[in-house]
């Protein structure tokens, strides 16, 4: 049984939206935290966001008894010098930008300058932990810990190994994950046995974008307005916003970069389509730049959902997620589907595909086969476990 009682000092590297969220919950769990970034104004903004977040928690009466925002903030330090910031720490969360060369370099510096027992947990969305750790002197102590936004509300953290990670490092990551509070209840800290870029949630969420890309390019050729695609999606009331609005909301470049990464790791079928590529090339990145599929310059766009295009099916997205979930089972990344559904619900608030999948797998397998025929996107071919329904017996 591993002991984490000696872990007291934590560094969080990267003071962006994920970094300050992770730092906040680590502080709430009682750790001493140093928040690190490359510029003073960024770390200061991170500290301000942590304080703001803590005040909201305090207003809800959810701080532990006897704690106050000021005594929690007293355990929080800041730094713009990574080398010295990690000198005396026991555990590091890395939440820097999703660029592999930066992540590898940050990992190398952290492992060269922290004590030998220190573990580094990368919050990468797409990269292999093995690759992030490959230039460092202690790859056995590097793990992946993938949180969801906002960290304080989404109760899941996925914990994954790289090829050289020890069982002990993985166990410590899982236990630390469980220590970090969440406003909706106990944090689900999921141990993923085998390396899987994208962990569980992003493995399921990204393949449907292959289909979305294809729909976008078809719509563009036929002159169909984007709002009609969103109308197709929202007609089923399964999702809070249509895929075009959601892509704008999250950042068109974020989707584009994830696809570029998956294109390299998994299949050329993930290659961003013409519409997405053009939006990125033109700098129309959605909400943050004011323009993407929609015009956001005066706030949330008014989208007319009265007319549907009839070319986008949310059911196809569910079928694709079921197929990807079955692949995770086939690849022994998880041993049962319950954990996949639990991660989806607690991490993303989207119900997992296995409930409806049990009733619809035959129909959905046929839908995927048809789609592969017309699109040539072989990555979406239904796997044997989905087609046979064999997954139904693999709940745990
Ligand atoms: P962000 O752009 O908000 O923040 C990244 C921060 O890293 C920036 O403040 C940047 O200045 C800093 N940084 C860059 N180089 C650095 C260096 N060498 N040393 C220290 N800091 C450095 O990004 P984010 O959304 O917080 O994402 C961070 C990580 O978390 C990424 O790997 C991302 O894929 C992952 N992630 C994001 C989400 C999400 O929904 N945003 C969810 C899960 C995981």
Q: Based on the structure given, which CATH architecture of the largest domain is correct?
A: 3-Layer(aba) Sandwich
Tell me the domain tally: 3
DSSP helix fraction:
40-55%
> Approximately what portion of the residues adopt beta-strand conformation?
5-15%
CATH class of the largest domain: Alpha Beta
CA-CA gap between termini: 23 Å
The CATH topology annotation of the largest domain reads as Rossmann fold
Q: How many helices in DSSP terms?
A: 17
Taking strands numbered 1, 2, ... along the chain, how are they ordered across the largest sheet?
A: 3-2-1-4-5-6-7-8
> What is the number of E strands?
8
CA radius of gyration: 22 Å
Shape: globular
Category by helix and strand content: alpha/beta
* Unreliable segments of 5+ consecutive residues: none
Which sequence of SSEs, written as H and E, runs from N to C?
EHEHHEHEHEHEEHEHHHHHHHHHH
Largest sheet: 8 strands, mixed
